[in-house]
Every structure is written in structure tokens, then in C-alpha cells.
Design goal:
- The longest helix has 22 residues, at about 140-160.
- Helix 4 packs antiparallel against helix 8 (about 140-160).
- Strand 1 and strand 2 (about 15) form a beta hairpin.
- The protein has helices at about 20-30, 40-45, 50-60, 70-85, 90-95, 100-115, 125-130, 140-160, 170-175, 210-215, 220-225, 225-230; strands spanning about 5, 15, 235, 255.
- The protein has twelve helices and four strands, in the order E-E-H-H-H-H-H-H-H-H-H-H-H-H-E-E.
- The protein has a two-stranded antiparallel ribbon. It has a two-stranded antiparallel sheet with strand order 3-4.
- The two termini are about 30 Å apart.
- The protein binds a DNA duplex through helix 3 and helix 6.
- Pfam families: Myb_DNA-binding (PF00249).
- GO terms for molecular function: DNA binding.
- Its main location: nucleus.
Length: about 260
DNA sequence: AAGTGCCTCAACCGCGGACGA
DNA sequence: GTCGTCCGCGGTTGAGGCACT
């Protein structure tokens, strides 16, 4: 499932990303953040366009990107959200921690789309169609969707294998990754690095549930989650919160 | 074992919105 | 108000994997 590498007329590389390119991109973002995608490849030493770098980061390299099979809860949520939002994949993705819009879009086209027209293919779909039968009234529909979102999101969050480290203090960050403390922090917002200082972040959608998971599911599969980083030879200093159990991204150390 | 077709998913393309000059 | 630039989004494609014949 890879595209043959090629070069466009401007000499920019297209196609599959190599491990070397991944490492360069991650190395650069770890140090400088990703405030300007257009300039990033030039400064990072990549022969790629900014859009390609952004896409690679968002869909593959970004921390907390959840890879692997979709759970029933996720499928259920996607179906409900698609009923209310249509093909607004980025909107839908905001309700699925760790999933990218691209992944959800692929999931829809490859599986759920056909299942929605033929519920026999997917029991979750059949149930959804049953429960949402009388959604003519818009108010009822909104209520149903909202309650379903609450339930489904809780299900996902309770079963998610993802852990996100507690947010470090700015001083910790500056000591571990020079440059990050100058407003170029790693955020967990959709698709990009937030410019909001890390210390000011608290209690948002991305951190709260994972903090809970971090406490409850310390033995989850961080190896899987960090696979791209391990493969690239990136190591993680222990979290100041719990050195034994956690992994650490915000102040990650990259071997050179 | 070889051929074929479908499935999956990473990546590209083009458009539109936001924003600043 | 217009233009240019940048970014994000949704649609589409390319190619490997895999099941089936």
C-alpha cells in the first residue's frame, strides 16, 4: 500500500515516506514545532511540500494517533455522527480520540458505507438503525445523538489503549527540549501543534480522559502506540510524574 | 501454483476559507 | 475591496495484501 516515490517538476518528492524522512520531520517538529508548514520542509531538510509533511504528521507521526482495528463503539459513533454531520470527517474525528479524519473516511468508504445500506453486514449498524428509527423530530434527534455521543465516547475512552502523559511544566519542557518553551509546544489539538503554552492547558477533551486512562491502564500497549518512534530510534525520558509506568513525548529526546 | 478481483489505507489533488498586505 | 498566501478539508487514487477461483 505504498506509492512509488517520484519527483515533481519542482524537484519535490512524492510518494511513500521513508524512515529517514520520518525521522527528519519528527526531529524538526520536536525542536521547532510546526507553526509554518510551508517553510518546514525547507528548514527540516526535506524535499517535500508542506502539505505532504503536514499530512504525514497528522495521519501517522503525531503522538496519540491510534492505529489498528476500529472498535464496535467507534463504528457505532461514526455511524451516528455521519447521520448528523454527513461527510464532515474532521468534525467526526474530533469525537474519536486518536483517530484521524483520513482514517475515519477510509473506514467509512471501506466498510461502514456498505454496511449502512446492508445492515446484515454489520450488527452495530442494524442496532443503530433500530434505535434511530423515529428521528423525525429534530429535537429528539439531537437529544439522541448527544446521549449516544456521551455513551459511545465514554465507551471508547474506557476501552482505549492510548495513554497520554500528564502535561509537563514549562520548566521541565525547556530542560528537555530547547526551543519548545518559546511558545512552540506540542499540543494534542486536531492535526497540529498548538501555540498555547503547555502550562495553560488543562481539562480539555484530549487530556482529561487520557489522564484517567493513564492512572487506570498503565500496562496498556504503549509499544504499539510508540512503534513509529521506536523504529526511528527515538527514546523517551521518563515522565516526572511516574518514571516506571509512563511514556513521554512532550520532552522527547531524539538520538542523533 | 497462478491468475484475478476486491479490500485497505497511505498519500495526493484541488478547492475553499481565513487572514494579512 | 482585491489579491496573494497559507492551511485545512474532503474526494480520489495507487498499489500492496489477501481471499477466492
Amino acid at each position: 500500500m505504498v506509492r512509488t516515490p517520484s519527483y515533481d517538476k519542482n524537484g519535490l518528492k512524492k510518494g511513500t515516506w521513508t524512515r529517514e524522512e520520518d525521522k527528519k520531520l519528527m526531529d524538526y517538529i520536536a525542536t521547532h514545532g510546526c507553526s509554518n508548514w510551508r517553510q518546514l520542509p525547507k528548514h527540516a531538510g526535506l524535499s517535500r511540500c508542506g502539505k505532504s509533511c503536514r499530512l504525514r504528521w497528522i495521519n501517522y507521526l503525531r503522538p496519540n494517533v491510534r492505529r489498528g482495528n476500529f472498535t464496535q463503539e467507534e463504528d457505532k459513533l461514526i455511524l451516528e455522527l455521519h447521520q448528523s454531520h454527513g461527510n464532515r470527517w474532521s468534525t467526526i474525528a474530533k469525537h474519536l480520540p486518536g483517530r484521524t479524519d483520513n482514517e475515519i473516511k477510509n473506514r467509512w468508504h471501506s466498510y461502514l458505507k456498505s454496511s449502512s445500506t446492508n445492515p446484515k453486514l454489520h450488527p452495530i449498524v442494524a442496532n443503530n438503525l433500530k434505535t434511530s428509527k423515529h428521528k423525525d423530530d429534530k429535537t429528539n434527534e439531537e437529544v439522541n445523538i448527544n446521549s449516544l455521543l456521551d455513551n459511545a465516547t465514554n465507551d471508547i475512552l474506557e476501552s482505549t489503549p492510548i495513554v497520554t502523559p500528564p502535561l509537563p511544566s514549562p520548566s521541565t519542557i525547556s530542560s528537555l527540549a530547547p526551543g519548545i518553551n518559546s511558545g512552540k509546544s506540542f499540543g494534542l489539538e486536531e492535526g497540529a501543534c498548538s501555540k498555547q503554552p503547555i502550562g495553560e492547558r488543562s481539562g480539555d477533551f484530549w487530556t482529561e480522559p487520557f489522564l484517567h486512562d493513564f492512572e487506570e491502564n498503565v500496562d496498556c500497549s504503549t509499544d504499539d502506540l510508540l512503534m513509529p518512534f521506536h523504529e526511528l530510534g527515538i527514546q523517551y525520558p521518563p515522565s516526572p510524574i511516574d518514571e516506571e509506568k509512563s511514556f513521554w513525548f512532550y520532552g522527547m529526546h531524539i538520538n542523533k
